[in-house]
Amino acid sequence: MKYLIDTHIFIWFMMNPEKISKSVMKILTNEDNRVFISPISFWEMAIKYQSKKLDLGKINILHLPHIAEQFDFELLNPEPYDYVSVGTVPIKEDHHDPFDRMLIQQAIRNNLVLLSADSKFQQYEENGLQLIW
Fold it and tell me: Which of 10, 35, 44, 73 could form a disulfide with 68 if both were Cys (CB 3.0 to 4.6 A apart)?
């Protein structure tokens, strides 16, 4: 199977793996699965890190792509169509986060199952989002 991880899943995998559900941890550690991370997540972490909304402890922000590589997460580079088509993802009640909407669009467009604990993502299942937590 092919999966896309939400930003917080990557952060938890690095720093607090006990926060990840057993079923998602099984997916992340199964070598038969392809697990993708989007550069959108790196961008989100960099912005939150700079604004002091994200504490990475002793992890150097510049090492995040390399860390993802070490975990065997594959990079899912957005294509120009991903950027413009995010405008087709409906804005749901109380959910306007542009990073989340981009990840949702990438998951739908690339037929990936999104791994996220964000309950707001469930609203997008009616739009074709495949979601696991």
Answer: 73
The 3-state DSSP class for residue 85 equals helix
| Cβ–Cβ < 8 Å for 129, 112 | no
pTM of the model: 0.93
Query: What is the C-alpha separation between 114 and 101, in angstroms, rounded?
Result: 12
CA distances (Å), origin 25, targets 44, 47, 85, 119, 133: 22, 27, 31, 18, 10
For residue range 27-76, list pLDDT tens digits in order: 999 999 999 999 999 999 999 999 999 999 999 999 999 999 999 999 99
